[in-house]
From TrEMBL:
Belongs to the reduced folate carrier (RFC) transporter (TC 2.A.48) family. Keywords: Membrane, Transmembrane, Transmembrane helix. The keyword Transmembrane applies. One of its GO terms (cellular component) is plasma membrane. The chain crosses the membrane at residues 75-94, 101-119, 131-150, 162-182, 188-210, 282-301, 321-339, 351-368, 374-394. One of its GO terms (molecular function) is vitamin transmembrane transporter activity. It holds the Pfam family Folate_carrier. This is Folate transporter 1 (inferred by orthology to a C. elegans protein). It comes from the Eukaryota. SUPFAM superfamilies: MFS general substrate transporter (SSF103473). InterPro entries: Folate_carrier, MFS_trans_sf.
Length: 420
């Protein structure tokens, strides 16, 4: 009788443990799905800024009365330098402050940007607008990385697709509305900026509502990655030095993990991740390409409206919104199709980067020389399509490398025919 009672008690507690585990898994699944919905809503509303494709026409119109020289020489350059100065500090602060703070910063800076656009009247205020917008642009990294700290790595590919599509949907709706209002004269450039201001005020509320990422979650991710890396190092070391003292190995492991604070652990992890550039030339090449290409395309985005303005006749119906709308549609289509393209970007990467970068350079040169606005629109959309395709490919490559690196299947001496 006594063994039977003991068996029933153990069975009861085992069942309770299973129910608790299942409840925990269900709660975690609901949490990340709800958070995904909220961050995607943030992305859609954040990009719903119909004033964007008509910023230059707005600033030179009767609403603001700035000259082309003032725009080119005294206003627009402030975004470039502001973005450059803010990017590196925000890159580190995003993880240290656990994402949400930087997302709120981005939303607040966007609110300040459009408040200055709507009510600002002089060059100093427009310069301040560009500085604040540069900070917001640098803080955008938090939006794209927030979900990676919340969800398990098995959902990384889905999350990447969701947040990219959310941003593209917001842009598409905004640009379509902008072109509709301007072409049919339902509204003015000022109305577009007022709508944009209302939109960015809404995202400030959404940003505050986002659940914070606890330091414990980040610490666990960092600890897991570092533990797996040290296990691989131990296995490699044991294969060549079988006489190592296990006590010394454990002492060395403890010394590596014995950090004084979460911030120190973060910088140790960052340093470990930077080692991949030394051992993996594929990552190094694509990272350099990403950095240089982003610099170039951002300059195109920043000044292309100014270039278009020189080709547009006074009183002519501008198609900036339509062009950006088509650009967004093509970007979304490419981002969707690249996932189903069975291309080994590791083996074909060098050729792809050389060919596409050469084509992009020719497109930029042609864009600078043409005097026809429609040719300029086509060249711009083609250039942006190439950028979208390779950025999506780089993201796919990064996700594969990241998952293999964290799971421990990517070694330092991986050959180029593997995705690691």
């Amino acid at each position: 009788l006594q063994p039977s009672i003991s068996h029933d008690i153990n069975k009861h507690f085992n069942c309770r443990g299973k129910h608790k585990n299942q409840l925990f898994r269900d709660t975690a699944a609901i949490h990340w799905k709800a958070t995904t919905l909220l961050i995607c809503l943030y992305g859609i509303v954040k990009e719903f800024r119909p004033a964007t494709p008509f910023l230059t026409p707005y600033l030179v119109s009767s609403f603001k009365n700035f000259t082309d020289t003032e725009l080119y020489s005294e206003i627009y350059p402030f975004w470039t330098y502001s973005y450059l100065i803010a990017l590196i500090p925000i890159f580190f602060l995003t993880d240290i402050l656990r994402y949400k703070t930087i997302i709120v910063l981005e939303a607040a800076c966007l609110c300040a940007t459009w408040a200055l656009l709507v009510w600002g009247t002089n060059i100093r205020q427009m310069q301040l607008m560009q500085i604040v917008f540069g900070i917001a642009s640098a803080a955008e990294i938090a939006y794209y990385s927030y979900m990676y700290a919340v969800v398990d790595q098995k959902h990384y590919k889905r999350i990447t697709s969701y947040i990219r599509c959310a941003a593209l949907v917001g842009k598409f709706l905004a640009f379509a509305l902008a072109q509709l209002l301007i072409s049919f004269r339902y509204g003015s450039y000022l109305l577009l900026n007022q709508i944009s201001f209302a939109s960015v005020c809404i995202i400030l509320i959404i940003a505050v509502m986002l659940p914070p990422v606890s330091s414990k979650v980040i610490a666990n991710k960092v600890q897991t990655a570092d533990n797996r890396k040290m296990e691989r190092n131990d296995l490699q070391k044991s294969g060549t030095e079988d006489n190592d003292d296990p006590v010394e190995c454990e002492k060395s492991r403890a010394n590596v993990l014995a950090v004084d604070s979460d911030i120190l652990a973060y910088f140790v992890s960052i340093w470990n991740h930077f080692q991949i550039f030394r051992t993996n030339k594929v990552v190094l090449k694509w990272s350099l390409w990403w950095a240089l290409t982003s610099c170039g395309i951002y300059q195109v985005y920043n000044y292309v409206q100014t270039l278009w303005a020189t080709m547009q006749k006074d009183g002519e119906d501008t198609k900036n919104g339509l062009t950006e709308c088509v650009n967004t549609m093509i970007g979304a289509l490419i981002a969707f199709l690249v996932q189903y393209m069975h291309v080994n970007w590791v083996k074909c990467g060098e050729v792809a980067l050389f060919v596409t970068s050469s084509i992009a350079a020719l497109l930029v040169f042609a864009l600078s020389q043409t005097t026809d606005i429609w040719i300029a629109y086509v060249l711009y959309v083609t250039l942006a399509a190439i950028y979208h395709m390779l950025m999506t490919a780089a993201s796919e490559l990064w996700i594969g490398i990241r998952m293999e690196y964290v799971s421990g299947s990517c070694s330092a001496d991986s050959s180029h025919d593997r995705r690691c």
